[in-house]
Each structure stands twice: as structure tokens, then as C-alpha cells.
């Protein structure tokens, strides 16, 4: 059976589901190809947590799913404390940063949301889009034609469309099928995630510690006096952490965080995933564009991986809906506009996170002094600090009053 669509979207993660929904809401006939398990409904906390920036909250509102999220499972971030490795000693070198939503003219710095919470809302919305057809299978082969893309699924369906959107993650089948090359850097670290109940209230404040071996620990606020851990650490350390039982894990993280939130109680067992930076050589190909981790991955120390991917989608939706009347949905000019718009912010975020990782990995006394002194100087410069956090959170920067 061959079926004609306007767009084929491959991918069932947050970026893939959001892409399928957003494109369908423009009126396009969408084929959504993915083989992903439904969001969990057992009520347990999800260890995978995202810090959504305000522009991406706006995107989810645009997709009409923000109000469908379970508000009792979300937490706003009003403050953020960042500690360098000298702030954790008695060296007197400083090395602390404090960001406040109030000081940066925002209602909040970000929203902490479970992956499962977002997926539930997206999957529910996808069921009620009449011009979307879901193919619960994997993609098998594709052919690039003059008119667009022909894609065959494992079930034997042959789908045709002028545009293919690959939003299928870091190991993207779409990217590999089109032989799009990519650059790659292995941090030789794992991101270890888990959730904890906290003895002390967090007051909607996110805490982050940079250690002098390049490891980074973050505790992000969750509702009901809970916190989510994202610990980027070297592979031997992550292996040691993954060998701990829940009580040992909670005690270890309490000590690493200097008991900032008091004694911790483990709510979800630790999970670990390898940390790698990846950048596709091209974000586009004939009749095709890549979105999210299919095009780029970054170190999680800034929490911007999903934010970058959702802004890819937001940019494409704007370009597609505002295109000139004579331009088709797969017009090469339109695709090039997308690549130009997304390449610069992606490379900038990759560069910043990579540089921070390398800076704190260096044990040299000069590097240590420079990084901690720099943090203290930045903390004492409110206008510069305001611009930095606004840029990091995707806000338009404003001059100091």
C-alpha cells in the first residue's frame, strides 16, 4: 500500500512527537513513524527531567499541550546557585554565582518537568489530530525522488511526501539513511540521574556544583520538597555510583552537595547514559530536515539539549507558516533558511558547554584561579549577569536600567 502525505515525521521522543503534532496543526497531512512505548501511567517519578526554558513553554502553549501537563508534577525555578570548586573549600577564592528570576525580569528561570509528563500530554494530543496517521513501526528504507521522499516501513507501508523530518534522536536512522556525516566527541562521562526527597526545603532554587575534575552535580527542584539529580561524572565514578544501593546513593549525594538540602532519601534508582557531543555536518538534505538530537547533542551541564531541539521545531514552524505563497513546503530556499537559523545558536551552545567542561577539568592552579575569579567577577556585575542568563534561557536580552 502506498500512501501520499505532506510530511513524514520519524521519531517518537519528545522532539518527534512535538514535531508531528506541530506540523499536523498547520493543516499538513502527516505520517508519524515511530515504535516507542507509551508514557508510563504508574504514577512513579520519572528519573528523566527537563528544565524547559520560557520560549519552549511558549512553544508547548502554541501546540496546546502546556495546560494538559500535570501541574502537580512541575516546579518553577526562581533562583539558581552555582558553585565553583573553590567555593567548596576554605581557599577564599570565591567562585560562586547566583541567578534570580526577579533580577532578570522573568517570572521564572525555567520549569522542571518530567519527561513522562510531557510525553503523556503530547501522546494524548496526537490522538485527536484528524490529519495525522500513526505508523507504529520502524522505518526501513527510503528513496530520494525528484518530488520528495519515499519511505518504506518494516510493516511494508510505502509512504510518500515532499518533506521528511528526522526527529529520531542521537542515533538517528534518518541521518544515517541519508548518509549525513557528523562530528563527534566522547566526554568519557556518564550522566547519572535520580530523584530524592529532601530534608530541607529547596525554595524553588536549583543548585549546581562544578568539581575540579570536570564533574558537575546539579540538584533541580521538584514539587513536594523533592529534587532531581543530574550528575555528569567520569565513567569510573558513574560505575561506582551505579553499584550503590538507594541508601548509599542518597548519603553520597548528600555529602557531595554539602548537605545543602539536608539528608536525602532516594525515590528513583539511578540511571546512567553516556555523554557525547555530536553535530551533524548538515541539518538539511534534499526534501529533508533534522530536528533535535538527530542534528546535535550537547553536554547536559547547562540543561539545554531538549531546549535546543524544541527551538529547532519552533523555527521550522515559523518558516513553514510564514513562507512566500510560491514556495513549496520542501523548497530548498526554505530548508537553507532553517539551517542558517539553527546552526549558529547550536554551535554557540555546544561551544559554551564544551569550554566550561574543559575549564573545570583542568587541575592547573592558574586555570583554577581564573575560573573561580571569573565567576565571582560575573556575580558582581548584574547587567552582564542579566544578559547571560537571558541568553541562556532563550530570552531577548535587554540593557540594564
From TrEMBL:
Domain of life: Bacteria
Enzyme class: oxidoreductase
Keywords: FAD, Flavoprotein, Monooxygenase, Oxidoreductase
Cofactor(s) required, per the database record: FAD
Molecular function terms from GO: FAD binding; monooxygenase activity; oxidoreductase activity, acting on paired donors, with incorporation or reduction of molecular oxygen
Pathway: Cofactor biosynthesis; ubiquinone biosynthesis
Gene Ontology biological process: ubiquinone biosynthetic process
Domain FAD-binding, chain residue ranges per copy: 5-320
Record EC number: 1.14.13.-
PANTHER family per UniProt: UBIQUINONE BIOSYNTHESIS MONOOXYGENASE COQ6, MITOCHONDRIAL
Family (UniProt): Belongs to the UbiH/COQ6 family.
NCBIfam families xrefs: Ubi-OHases
Protein name, UniProt field: 2-octaprenyl-3-methyl-6-methoxy-1,4-benzoquinol hydroxylase
Organism per entry: Ephemeroptericola cinctiostellae
Amino acid at each position: 500500500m502506498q500512501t501520499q502525505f505532506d510530511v513524514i515525521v520519524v521519531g517518537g521522543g519528545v522532539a518527534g512527537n512535538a514535531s508531528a503534532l506541530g506540523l499536523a496543526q498547520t493543516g499538513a497531512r502527516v505520517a508519524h513513524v515511530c515504535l516507542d512505548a507509551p508514557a508510563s501511567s504508574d504514577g512513579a517519578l520519572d528519573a528523566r527531567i527537563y528544565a524547559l526554558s520560557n520560549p519552549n513553554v511558549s512553544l508547548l502553549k502554541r501546540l496546546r499541550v502546556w495546560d494538559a501537563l500535570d501541574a502537580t508534577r512541575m516546579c518553577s525555578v526562581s533562583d539558581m546557585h552555582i558553585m565553583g570548586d573553590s567555593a567548596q573549600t576554605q581557599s577564599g577564592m570565591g567562585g560562586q554565582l547566583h541567578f534570580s528570576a526577579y533580577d532578570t525580569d522573568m517570572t521564572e528561570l525555567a520549569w522542571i518537568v518530567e519527561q513522562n509528563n510531557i510525553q503523556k500530554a503530547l501522546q494524548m494530543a496526537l490522538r485527536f489530530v484528524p490529519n495525522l496517521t500513526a505508523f507504529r513501526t520502524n522505518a526501513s528504507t527510503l528513496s530520494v525522488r525528484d518530488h520528495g521522499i519515499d519511505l518504506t516501513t518494516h510493516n511494508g507501508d510505502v509512504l510518500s511526501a515532499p518533506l521528511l523530518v528526522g526527529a529520531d534522536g542521537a542515533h538517528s536512522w534518518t541521518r544515517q539513511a541519508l548518509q549525513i556525516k557528523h562530528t563527534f566527541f566522547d566526554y568519557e562521562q556518564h550522566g547519572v540521574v535520580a530523584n530524592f526527597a529532601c530534608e530541607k526545603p529547596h525554595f524553588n532554587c536549583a543548585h549546581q556544583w562544578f568539581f575540579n575534575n570536570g564533574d558537575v552535580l546539579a540538584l533541580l527542584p521538584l514539587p513536594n520538597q523533592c529534587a532531581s539529580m543530574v550528575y555528569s561524572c567520569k565513567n569510573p565514578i558513574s560505575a561506582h555510583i551505579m553499584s550503590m544501593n538507594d541508601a548509599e546513593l542518597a548519603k553520597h549525594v548528600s555529602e557531595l552537595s554539602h548537605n545543602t538540602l539536608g539528608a536525602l532519601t532516594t525515590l528513583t534508582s539511578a540511571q546512567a547514559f553516556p555523554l557525547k557531543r555530536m553535530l551533524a555536518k548538515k541539518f538539511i538534505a534534499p526534501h529533508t530536515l533534522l530536528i533535535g538530537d538527530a542534528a546535535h547533542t550537547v553536554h547536559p551541564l547547562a540543561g539545554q539539549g531538549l531546549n535546543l531541539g524544541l527551538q529547532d521545531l519552533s523555527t521550522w514552524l515559523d518558516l513553514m507558516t510564514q513562507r512566500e505563497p510560491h514556495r513549496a513546503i520542501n523548497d530548498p530556499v526554505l530548508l537553507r533558511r532553517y539551517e542558517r537559523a539553527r546552526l549558529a545558536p547550536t554551535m554557540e551552545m555546544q561551544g559554551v558547554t564544551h569550554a566550561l567542561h574543559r575549564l573545570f577539568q583542568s587541575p592547573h592552579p592558574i586555570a583554577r584561579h581564573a575560573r573561580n575569579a571569573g565567576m565571582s567577577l560575573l556575580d558582581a556585575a548584574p547587567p552582564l549577569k542579566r544578559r547571560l542568563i537571558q541568553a541562556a534561557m532563550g530570552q531577548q536580552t535587554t540593557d540594564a536600567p
